[in-house]
Amino acid sequence: MGKTNLTKWQRIKHYLNHLLLPASLSLLVGCVALDADMRTGSSSDSPELTPPPNFTRGLITRRVAEPFYPLRAQNLGIKGWVMVEFSVDQNGEVIGNSIRTIEEEPEGYFQQSALNAARRMLFDNTRGQILDDIRYVFRFELDEQNSILVEPPSEEVEFRELIPMRYITPNYPEIAMELGIEGYVIVEFSVTAVGAVENVSIIESEPPGVFNEEAINAALRLRFEPRIIFDGPVRVDNVQYRFDWRLPN
User: Fold this and answer.
1) What does the alpha-carbon distance between residue 162 and residue 152 come to, in Å, rounded to a whole number?
2) pLDDT tens per residue, range 151-183
3) What is the residue range of 4's domain?
4) Do both 223 and 193 map to the same domain?
């Protein structure tokens, strides 16, 4: 009787092991695969922050033009890089109509500034022939003062980005201060050829509506050294600027 019961129990145990082992292995394999996907996915889904290397085909760089930091990116605290591709003529000068953007991170902030900087580069071209497929990376990093990078003035200025002349601290609404409310407003406006601000509008505000009026008043008091293109000041539209309200500690 005991022998029969033992045999039956062994058969049940064997059946359960046979049934559950594949499921356990599948679950284990699935967990391992999920863990691997999470490790690899965390790097593949995130934007590539390290720019690719320069490719100058052996040319010696004689002059690198520091790119101007776009005002919109500077105000929003955004940094990044742009890789451009171009051709170099026999004299080592960049051929203007050959410049194009290969890659940028993030998109939409630094492309034009990088293209303008590429035009001002100069190389030693000992080969004496046009060289194509030159690739160069321009990096945009905010300095400790969060200021705009500007080249020293020269006699022949072809391009200069907007330069803030006056920084404005907006008024703190009394009701917001009494209630302990902090926030920010991003405004958009035009800068005229004489550096004045006009056509101010609200792009984003948090909390909505609390600081809008003070942001508009502060924006209208900003002044800039105008953007210069080919020695002449020009109007600039769609300039964005951020104002912050923080309670004193």
Assistant:
1) 14
2) 444 444 456 777 888 778 899 999 999 999 999
3) 1-46
4) yes
